[in-house]
From TrEMBL:
Domain Reverse transcriptase zinc-binding: from-to ranges: 209-297
The protein's name in its UniProt record: RNase H type-1 domain-containing protein
UniProt-recorded Gene Ontology molecular function terms: nucleic acid binding; RNA-DNA hybrid ribonuclease activity
Residue ranges annotated for the RNase H type-1 domain, each copy included: 393-500
Classification via Pfam families: RVT_3 (PF13456), zf-RVT (PF13966)
Amino acid sequence: MQTVLLPSSICSEIDTLNRKFLWAVDMQSNKPHLVNWNDVCLPKKYGGMGLKSARDYNKALIAKLGWHMLSGSNKLWCQAFTYKYLHSNSFLNCNPTPSSSVTWRSILKCRDMLRLGIQWRVGSGTQIQLWHDVWAGNSKLLDVALSPIPHHLLDLPVAAIINNSKWDLEQLTGLLPDHILQTIAAIPLPIAGHLEDSIYWYNSSQGDFSVKSVIQLLQQSRLPDIPEVGEWAWIWQLCCPERVKLFVWLLKKERILTNSVRFARHMAPTPVCPRCEQSPETPLHLLRDCYYSRLVWDATNFLPGDFFQLDFAPWLRKNSSKSRMGPRASDSWSSIFLATIWYLWKSRNKLIFEEQRVSPLAIVQQASKLAWEIQLAFAAKATLISKAPRWVTAAGGLLRDHLGHWYHGFATNVGITTSFLAELWGCREGLKLAISLGVQQLILEMDSLLAVQQIQSRKVSAGAASVLLNDICLLLDSFSSCLVQHTLREGNYAADFMASIGHTIDLDTTFFPTPPTGISMILQSDCIGAMSLRY
C-alpha cells in the first residue's frame, strides 16, 4: 500500500469490505447500500463521510514518496533513487526505463497528483518557468493568458520580471487578466540576502505535504460542483450520538428507505405510509406531517412558529442546529428534536418489519431520555471548548406529592468530582429542600445502588464521602418517617432531567417551584405508569 500501486482488483475488494462494514452487510445478505461509495468518500464539508477509498489512499501514499523526491529529501532511499534514475534530469520530467523498479514506476505514475498541489515560492526566480510552472495562483500563467504568448517570451524565467527586488509587470500587460497581475504584485519578494526558489504544498496552511490533503485534491477534482461552505458541515457539528448524525446525513441526502423509495426500488408493494395509509411516505411525511407524528410533536412543550410550514431541508437544518434556535433554550430544543425524529424512525421500522406498534407517549419518553444524554454530551463539549476540566458533574432532583405531581425541584452544578459524590451531593440538597418546605414524611428514591446502600447502612466512612454521608444521616433524622430505596434509571428520568440542567448553570443550586420546560411529558408518563423498555 505504501510502496507500490496495488492492482485495481485488490483495491476494489478492500472497498467492498469497507462498504459491507459501513452498511452492516454480511457475506450472505444483500442489503442495499444507501449512498454511493464515491459520495461516502467525499470530505464531510462536501457531503461525504470523510472515508478513504483504497485506490485514493494507495495513490496518496505513493505521492508522499514522490514529494520526498521532489523536495530533495536527504533520506537514504531518496539518494539511491536520485543516483540510479535521475542523473541530471528533473523528477517531474524524467521517464521510466526498462530496468526501473516497481516502486519507482509507481512513484512516477503518481506525479500528476503532485502537480495538483505544488506551487513555487519565489526567491530569486531563476529556477521557475514564467509560463509553464505554477507559482501565481493555482494554475499556469499559460493557461490563463488572454492571447498567444510571443515566442521570445515563452521560455523566460520568473527572474526576468524582477528588477531590484520589485515586480516589473510592464511586459505582461495585455497578456494576462488584471486580477492575475494583481496576484503577482501581491507576492512578496526577498529584499535582504539571497533566497533560492523552492516548492511548497499549497493545499496546506503550513505548506507541508500531507496524505489527507492529496486525497481531498483528488476528490475535489472529481466534483462537478463544489458545495457551498457550511451546506454539509453543520451535520457533523451537532451535539448528538454518531448514529443520529448519520441518520440526519441520510435524511439530507434523501437516502433513508421510506416506502416511497422502497416502492421505487421494488422493495415494497406500495409507497403509502403504513401508519395513516393515506399519503406517500416521504421523509417529511414520516417525521412531521403524518397524524401519528403530529401527536408526538404536539406532546412537546415548545414548537417553533413555522414548524409545520417549512420545506424539508430548511426544516431539518433549522430544528437540528442549536445555533439557529436562540440561546440556552435552543440547546434543549435541538436535542429534543433530534431524539424525537430518531425514535419516530425506529418506531416506524418496528411497525413495518416486526409488526410492533409503539405509542406516541412511549416515543416521547424514549426521546426525553436520549435528549437528556445529548444535553450532557453538549455540556461536556462546552467545558472542553472553554478549556475547563472535563469531569464537571451535576446533580438534580424533585419533590412530588402522593399523586406523583410536581411539588418542587432543584438542579446543582457540583463541580469536578466523581459521579458517586455527585449522587450524595444531590441527595443532601434534596433533603435540605424538603426540610425547608416543611415535609415530614418522605420516600427517598435514588438510582445509585451504592449510594442507597451507604445511606441505609448508616456507616460513615473516613473517605471523601464522609462529610456528605454524615450530613445525610443527620438530615434524615429530621423527618417523622423516611424510606430510602433504590429505583432503576428508567424510573428516574425526571431526576436525571433535572441533573442535566445542572450542567448549564453556574456553580451552586437553582430551585424550580414550577416544572422546567421539557419535563412535563416525563411527569405525565410517570403518573400514568407508562412502561419503559430497557436497552
